[in-house]
Structures are given as structure tokens and as C-alpha cells.
Amino acid sequence: MATKSSPPRPAAPSDERLLDLARRLAAVVNELGLSEIEVESAGLKLRVQRASAGPTPASAVALPTMPPATAEHPVVADATPLTASIGIEAPMVGTFYRASSPTAEPYVREGDLVKEGQILCIIEAMKLMNEIESKSAGRVVKILVENGQPVEYGQPLFLLEPQR
Q1: Are the beta carbons of 65 and 44 closer than 8 angstroms?
Q2: Distance of CA 118 to CAs 79, 88, 107, 159, Å?
Q3: Cis omega before residue 102 (within 30°)?
Q4: What total number of domains does the chain contain?
Q5: Most buried in the list 48, 95, 98, 152, measured by CB within 10 Å?
Q6: Is 134 inside a domain boundary?
Q7: H/E element holding 26?
Q8: Is residue 2, in this structure, part of any structural domain at all?
Q9: pLDDT of 99-133, one tens digit each?
Q10: What is the pTM of this model?
């Protein structure tokens, strides 16, 4: 008489593989400017969140839904210190554009000095072009979004170094 056996459970990933996956997810979070990312596969859930303040490293927590239990794994993420910079965030969901038209010069480039109220970019939302202005005077340190890329509410767009 044949007996039915359940399929073998996949082996739990090693701590080394989990740490490698967490590091790769942290890189994706930083590269895309996300606040967090969560992946679930083979009964394992892994979430990486960007730290909420300053240049503290992001952390990854492995939450297995089957034994063995895994411990929390810290992940060091490449983060530009924001303490001396002013972040300009997307005030709405839409598509980011650096210029008023595809053939026009960008409103600003990295290294440019900007005045308070100066237009930095456009976010297209529901077929409306919304001009995004600088909230203070300073130098554009980093443009964090590529032209034509979708952006989320609160997503960092620019880093400005305050003008002294």
C-alpha cells in the first residue's frame, strides 16, 4: 500500500543569504528613494525600511512563518547625510520632469544656486503640470529623481545645501 507524503519543505535560507538579500534590498530602497520594501517567498518575509531621521543605517527584519526562527539582521545602507542638507519632497503623486518641455533646458542642475521660490521641476498629475518651487535659497547638491520617473507623495526629489 502506497502512502502519501507531503512534498519536502524548502530549506530555510542561511543567515548569510538573508543578510545578502537584505543588503540588496537596502540598495534598491536607496536607489529608488523608497521608504521601505517587503519581499515574501517560501514562507519567509523580509522587510527593509529606511531610517526616519539622519544617516542611521536601515534595518532589515527577517520574519519567518516557519521554523527555524531567524534573528534581526542590521543592514548598512549607503545614505547621504542629510543633516546639512534641505530636502525638497514631492507634494503629490505624479511624473517628475526637469524641464518645461522635452527640448527645453532643465530648470536646475546639480551645483546650481537657487533662490527661495525658484522653480526646480514640474510634476505632472492628472494632465496638469505643477511647478515645484524651492522652499529656501541654496545650492543643488543632488537631484534624486530621473527625468520622466513616477514619484510618490513625500518622495525626496532634491537635496539643497543652505546658502549661508
Answers
A1: yes
A2: 27, 12, 9, 14
A3: no
A4: 2
A5: 48
A6: yes
A7: helix 15-32
A8: no
A9: 999 999 999 999 999 999 999 999 999 999 999 99
A10: 0.49
